[in-house]
Amino acid sequence: MDAGNGDDRQSHSGSSDELPRNPIAPQGRGSVGEEAASNTVGGGIGAGPLGSTATPTDSTRAASNSGLSGSKRPRRYSWVWNHFTINDNFINESGIDIGPRSVCHYCDKHYKCRSHNGNGPEGRHLKSKHADKIAGASDSSNFVYSKEKMRHGLALYVAAAEQPFTFGDDIRFEYFVQNYLNPSFAKVSRNSTRSDTKKAHSEVKKDLISELATVGAIGFTSDMWSGINNRGYICVTAHYIDSSWTLQKKIIAFRLVEFPHDADHIFDSIMGVFRDFSVLDKVYSITFDNHSANTATLPLFVRNLTTPYFGELLHLRCVCHVINLVVQDGLKKIAPQISKIRNTVLFIGNSPSRQQEFDKMCTIFYNLKPKNMNADVQNRWNSTYLMLKSCRKYSDVISAYVNQRYRPYLDSPLTQNHWKIGFEFMKFLKVFYVATLCCSGVRYPTSCIVLHHLFNISVNFRKHREHPNFVHACLDMEAKFRKYYEEMPPIFMLAAVMDPRMKLKGVSLVLGQIGTNLGIFTLPSSDDVYDLLTTMYAKYDAKFHSTAASTAAPLTSSTSGNDEFWNFVSSNIGIGSSTVSSRIELDKYLDLESVNVNDMLDFDVLAWWKRNEDKYPVLSIMARDLLTPPVSTVASESAFSAGSRVLDERRNRLAPDILDCLICLKDWEDARLGIQKRSAKDEFRGYFADSDIDSD
Question: Which domain of life is it from (predicted)?
Answer without folding.
Answer: Eukaryota
